[in-house]
Structures are given as structure tokens and as C-alpha cells.
Design a protein that fits this description.
It contains five helices and no strands. The longest helix has about 60 residues. With about 190 residues, it is mostly helical.
Length: about 190
């Protein structure tokens, strides 16, 4: 009876030791990955700054159309519309580039980036498909008569774009504020 209890106790102590060894190895492996994570986070910061600059540049170019006379705006509308369409079509490629980077960080950062791009896509497409945008596009691209409804739609379209631009700036700034927190977290872990 004593040898059975001793065997069970010895087996239990061995099991605890094996578990501690495994946890210790996992922790060591996790610490070894931190430098890669820090590099990925710095890459993410740089990539997000490029995204911000591209969004800001395109948004300013589109906002410029608001200052034009109606005849000039209608003759150049396709350029501004094309900017917005191209930006939205390039979102999936940009998202993939961001995901390549955040896949080296952690699942939490992946979810943040995925949500960030999903929100951008939804907001851009809702602006592109708004009734006001459709009215302006139909009038300009199909050569329909410029009437009071068109003028109202142009004004509302620019208001909708302004809301999109402000939302985009704010959302990018939120991401720019979150990423350094992740950087700080991993810097603390390595020390």
C-alpha cells in the first residue's frame, strides 16, 4: 500500500515538473518571438502612415471639387469619382499587405486591422452608392438635364463625402493611437 501511494505521489510530482518545463519552454519561445513582433509593429506604424497620407491626399483632391463651379465640377467629376473608386478597389490589396504584417504580431492586432478595413469598405461603398451620388453620376455620365434636384444632390453628396473624410481621419488616428500601445506591451515583455 505504501509503495502504491509513493508511486502515485512520485508520478504526480513528475507530472507537475513536466508541466512546468513545458510552460517554461513556451514562455522562452514567446520571448524569442518578441523582436520579430517589434519589427512587425514598426512596419505596421509605417504602413499606416502611408495609408493615412494616401487617404488624406485623395480626400483633399476630392474636396477641391466642392470649390469648383458646377460646369467645371461636372466636366472633371469623373476624375474625383475615379479616385474614390480606385481607393476602394485597392482596399483589399492594402488589407492583405497589412495582414501580412499583423500576422507576425498577434490575433488581437489581426482582428483590429480586419475590422478597420471592413469599416472603411462599408463606409466608402455607402458613400459611393448613396442616392445623391447616384443622381450626380446619372446626370453627369448619362447627360441628363441639370436641374434643382441635381444641385441639391451635389450639395448633399459633398456633405456625405465630408462625413466620410472626417470619419476616415478619426478612424486612422484611433489606429495610430492603438499600435504604440501594442509596441509598449511587447517592449515591456522583453525587459
Amino acid at each position: 500500500m505504501g509503495s502504491v501511494v509513493g508511486g502515485l505521489l512520485g508520478g504526480y510530482i513528475t507530472l507537475i515538473g513536466v508541466k512546468q518545463t513545458i510552460w517554461g519552454q513556451r514562455e522562452q519561445e514567446s520571448i524569442k518571438l518578441i523582436p520579430q513582433k517589434l519589427i512587425a509593429i514598426h512596419s505596421l506604424i509605417k504602413k499606416l502612415a502611408q495609408f493615412r497620407d494616401k487617404f488624406s491626399g485623395d480626400a483633399l483632391r476630392i474636396e477641391y471639387y466642392k470649390t469648383m463651379s458646377i460646369p467645371k465640377m461636372t466636366s472633371q467629376f469623373h476624375e474625383g469619382f475615379e479616385l474614390l473608386i480606385n481607393f476602394s478597389f485597392n482596399l483589399s490589396d492594402l488589407e492583405y499587405e497589412f495582414i501580412e504584417i499583423v500576422s507576425q504580431v498577434d490575433i488581437e492586432m489581426y482582428k483590429e486591422i480586419k475590422s478597420f478595413f471592413d469599416e472603411f469598405e462599408v463606409n466608402i461603398w455607402s458613400t459611393l452608392n448613396s442616392n445623391n451620388m447616384v443622381k450626380v453620376m446619372e446626370t453627369i455620365f448619362l447627360g441628363e438635364e441639370i436641374d434643382e434636384e441635381f444641385f441639391n444632390s451635389v450639395e448633399k453628396m459633398f456633405e456625405e463625402f465630408s462625413v466620410l473624410r472626417k470619419w476616415g481621419y478619426e478612424r486612422i488616428r484611433e489606429m495610430e493611437a492603438q499600435i504604440p500601445l501594442k509596441l509598449e506591451q511587447y517592449q515591456k515583455e522583453i525587459l
